[in-house]
Amino acid sequence: MQPVSSYLKAVKAKAAVFTEVGKPMEIREYPVPDPAPGDALIRITLSNICGSDLHFVHGLGPGVKSGPPRVMGHEMVGRIAKLGEGVTHDGCGQKLSEGDRVVYPYWVPCGACPACLRGDAACQQRYRHWLGTSCEEHPHFRGAYGEYYYLRRGQPMFKVPDDLPDAMVSPTNCILSEAYFGISTAQIELEDVVVIQGVGGLGLYATAMAREKGASKIIVIDRIAGRLELAKQFGADVTLDASSTTKEQRLQAIRELTHGDGADSCLEIAGTPAVVREGIESLRVGGRYVLVGNVNFGPVGEFEPGQVVRHHRSIHTVMVYPPWIMPKALAFLQRCRARYPFDRIISHTFPLEKINDAFEFAPKAIRVALQP
Ligand SMILES: [Zn+2]
Ligand SMILES: [Zn+2]
Prior knowledge:
Blueprint: E1 12-18, E2 26-31, E3 40-49, H1 51-57, E4 70-71, E5 75-83, E6 101-103, H2 114-117, E7 148-151, E8 158-159, H3 166-169, H4 172-185, E9 193-197, H5 201-212, E10 217-222, H6 225-233, E11 238-241, H7 247-257, E12 263-268, H8 276-281, E13 283-291, H9 305-309, E14 314-317, H10 325-336, E15 348-351, H11 355-361, E16 368-371
Parallel strand pairs: 9-10, 9-12, 10-11, 12-13, 13-14, 15-16
Antiparallel strand pairs: 1-2, 1-4, 3-5, 3-7, 3-16, 5-6, 6-8
Helix pairs in contact: 4-5, 4-10
The structure holds zinc ion (ZN) (2 copies).
């Protein structure tokens, strides 16, 4: 790691490079780029392995299977190493200086496609500078698994409050903001009953957020006992272990908890189509189902359309998030950190050089971080 002040020298820094599905990532060195006007260079202090990164290294994900060598990873926090000309303030209007700790969305909307023109964050070209381009080309540092990250015009930065440690804020630009967007899409009302399918990191945040929104009963479902136990500390009232119960038993439990009515909303965070049918059937008449975790093209599931139509249930989705959510997500961490053990979401940290070991270990952990 080069000290911040040395960025101007023609120094090199490390990044973990993904070349092919099934091959370990390689640590390579690239020249540290100087940011162009409107851009910025970030010295990464912590990056995480997200569920989607685990899918990516197995070739699942947009354009991942074949393509140039790439720096993977998208969840991270870092300090400003250098600001390009004209970059002076963060997305909240706070003055920026080199050395400030910041978070930022990991994608760059193109600004010109029909989705962008409608103000939808799910621009289909949003990863073109990351997954779409070789890290052998300038500015090299296109993902989270390196010592630096090259931030572009169109990626707003948000200053991180000093009292929040890196391990608490590093999930902000992915699962924390995604949980916020999911909870906001679920339109939870005071005293609602909420079901959450899957309580990895994202589901744990969603549980705490549902609690803060005033849900009266939060029912969480997972297959891993340790996660269910932790979910109670994040505000869950009832935990259902999917490894020892049937779908019918879980639906029966939810009906009993709601006088036969069903839940007001259910969030799918499990990332598998196998849970969709159950999620829909857990709802009351007019209940809302929010798909968050099923992000991959390919896997197919089934549900009974009549269960949606006859019960006037609705299905919603969230993909990435509008960036205004990020400062709110940071404020949520700051306000609620005494109530929920946010420091338990990052459960393990590996040095960046051990990235392949970290990827092997990650499916067994709540969340694994990499220290450059
Ligand atoms: Zn992610
Ligand atoms: Zn676009």
